[in-house]
Amino acid sequence: MGHISSISCNTPRQRVAPPAMVSFSGFEASGRRADALQGAQRPVVAMAAEFSSGGVGVRHSHRRAQFLHGLTGVMTVITETGSWTVSPQHALWIPPGVVHQSRCWGTVQLRTLYVEPDVTVGLPTSCQLMEVSSLVRALLNEAVTFPTEYDMDGREGQIMNLMLAEIGRMPAVPLRAPMPQDRRLARICEAILREPGNNQDLESWSQIGGLGRRTLTRLFRRETGMSFAEWRQQVRLMEALSRLTMREPVTNVALDLGYDSPSAFSAMFRRSMGISPRDYLRWSEQTEDLAT
Fold first, then answer.
1. H or E element: which one contains 47?
2. What pLDDT, on a 0 to 100 scale, did the predictor assign at position 59?
3. What whole-number distance in Å separates Cα of residue 69 and Cα of residue 143?
4. pTM exceeding 0.70
5. 3-state secondary structure of 15
C-alpha cells in the first residue's frame, strides 16, 4: 500500500509577496496620474494617493466616473450643485464630467476608482455619499496594487467586477449641502462654507447677497429644497464631522461652530445622526482602526 511522503508534508509552502502599491503624493502628482488613467485600456482602474492636511485641489473634472474613499483624514468635496464631507466611514461617487474641488482635513490616504461611463449602468447619475463596507474597503486596498493593464479575465478583473456590484448596493448617506444656482444666494453660501460658525442674522446675510430678506427665504427653499436655517445647520454638521474625525474636542467644535454651549451642539448632532458626538468619536476611531 502506498504512502504519502513525509518530505512533501513537511515542505514549507512558499509565500508569494504581495505586489507593491504605488501612491502618488499631492494634488499635482495625483492629478497627472488621474489624467493618464482616463485613457487606460480597462473599464475600471484604481489609484492610491496621499494629501497633506490643509491641501486644496484645483477645480477639475474627469471623463470617467470617480469613486473616492479616504482611509484616513477627511475630504470636503464641492461641486456646482453641492458640498459633501467624506470621512473614513464614507465614500463619494462622482459621475463623469462633474467639476469638483477637494479640501483635506488631516493627512488623507486616498483610494479611488475611475470607471468608464459605459459600465456605470445602475450606479448613481448624480454625486452621492455612501457608507463604505469592510468588503469594499478591502477590495479597494487590493485594487490599487494592480497593474494598469490587469488581466480582465483573471482574478483582478473579477475583483473589479465585484467592487462595482458592491458599490451599487452601498446605502446612501444624506449628508449634503445643495448649492443654489442663483448667484446672490451662492455668494451667501460660499461665505458660510468659509466660516460655518458665523452667526449673523438673516437680515445681515440678505445684505451680503444684495436681496431682500423675504426674497432670500423664498429663493433659498425653491433652489435648495431647504430653509436657510436647515441649510446652515447641515453645513455645520458636515464641518463638525470633519473636525470630530480629526479628534478635536467636542467643546471646541461646538463653540467654533456658533453654538451657545456643547449641550446645544450635542442635541443638534444627536437629532441629525442618531448618536452623540462622543459616541461618533468612538465609532470613528474603531472604524479607522479597521482600515489600517
1. strand 44-51
2. 92
3. 13
4. yes
5. coil
Spatial distance between the Cα atoms of 73 and 65, rounded to a whole number of angstroms: 22
Q: What is the DSSP letter of 11?
A: S
Mean pLDDT of the chain: 86
Helices 228-245 and 183-194: crossing angle in degrees, nearest 10, is: 30
3 state SS of 54: coil
Which residue bears the cell 450606479?
A: 123
Nearest to 149 by CA among 67, 70, 36: 36
CB 115 within 8 A of CB 43: yes
Q: Provide the CB-side half-sphere exposure for 113 (13 A, CA).
A: 27
**Residues constituting the chain:** 292
Helices and strands (H and E) in the chain: how many: 11, 10
Cell 450635542 belongs to residue: 266
- C-alpha closest to that of 134 among 19, 287, 27: 287
Q: CA separation (Å) from 219 to 133, 207, 209?
A: 38, 15, 12
Instruction: Tell me what pLDDT residue 29 has.
Output: 94
More confident residue, 17 or 238: 238
Cell match 477590495: residue?
Answer: 139
- Give the amino acid at 204: S
pLDDT at position 259: 92
* C-alpha to C-alpha distances, 218 to 188, 231, 234, nearest whole angstrom: 14, 13, 18
